[in-house]
Amino acid sequence: MHTKRDLRQVQKQKLQAYQGPDRLTEETALRAKLFNTAQWAAAKTIAVVLSTPMELNTQPIIAQAWANGKQVVVPKIVAKQMQFVAITPQTAFTAGALNIQEPEENTVYPPENIDLVIVPGLAYTKQGGRLGFGAGYYDRFLSTYTGQTIALALTPQLLETLPLEPHDQVIDQVLTR
């Protein structure tokens, strides 16, 4: 079995190589599945990342959340801790830690008011195992989070098994094609 570090490199390459109409079709299908879940319907506040080009495009998720009257919160790294900050269509962004877009706003959104976290990652298993990007921000956040978690797994992200460790947090539901 690969080490997590090796596996992260492989997964990044697979995701960067997975482009074109098939990927766009799959992303659209996964978002449609998300919008049809009971968790989405019930959630008033959704936490989602501002995706990088390698990741599933989350802009349509943010737009749909706003269209459904939901509050959207995105991660922001402050003093090595991941916090969530509310965004609106008027929010200004800057490149933050790891060169990921972050809101300039600093007001921390209370985690207990987040109903659904759409958890990013490099790989997932159908059982909810997740390989993150290696910084541990989500595992630390999810270790105390009590709401719902969902991941959207593109075909190259779905693996049979992952080298999970005790601190790795399991996702409630992994949506696949």
Automatic annotation (TrEMBL):
Pfam families: 5-FTHF_cyc-lig (PF01812)
Protein's name in the database: 5-formyltetrahydrofolate cyclo-ligase
Keywords: ATP-binding, Ligase, Magnesium, Metal-binding, Nucleotide-binding
NCBIfam families: MTHFS_bact
GO biological process: folic acid-containing compound biosynthetic process; tetrahydrofolate interconversion
Enzyme class: ligase
Tagged with keyword Hydrolase: no
Catalytic reactions of this protein: (6S)-5-formyl-5,6,7,8-tetrahydrofolate + ATP = (6R)-5,10-methenyltetrahydrofolate + ADP + phosphate
Keyword ATP-binding: yes
UniProt record similarity statement: Belongs to the 5-formyltetrahydrofolate cyclo-ligase family.
Sequence positions that bind ATP: K4, R5, D6, L7, R8, R130, L131, G132, F133, G134, A135, G136, Y137, Y138
Residues binding substrate: L50, E55
One Gene Ontology MF term: 5-formyltetrahydrofolate cyclo-ligase activity
Cofactor(s) needed for function: Mg(2+)
EC number of the protein: 6.3.3.2
Signal peptide: none
